[in-house]
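A quick aside before the break. I want you to see a complete sequence-to-structure record at least once, exactly as it would be stored in a machine-readable document. Don't worry about memorizing anything.
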Amino acid sequence: MSPHPTQTRPRLALISRIVAALIGGYALASVFSIFLSHLLPSELPEAVLGATLFSFAIYTAAIIWVFAAASAARAWLGLLIPGALMGLLSCAMQFAGSAT
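That is the input. The structure line, written in tokens, reads:
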């Protein structure tokens, strides 16, 4: 016996949010860590360590954001847009030579 279509849609939305929280949140925290390590005014090992420590707070905030967003699509966009922007800026800083 298959579930009604009205029951399937909320399940898919929940699964999408869980995947967004786990995978999208991790990706956002990783990209943020890379981005922040370029901006911190210290030697590279200290900058990477500080950015990595701060990325745990970003990961937690991303998980909270995913489940607080009005829809699963908004949750994904809230992770993908900042992640893509920070990724592009990190690449630009790397290629420009501002990374230590």
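Two observations worth writing down. The longest helix spans residues 5-39. The chain has one domain: 24-96. We'll return to this after the break.
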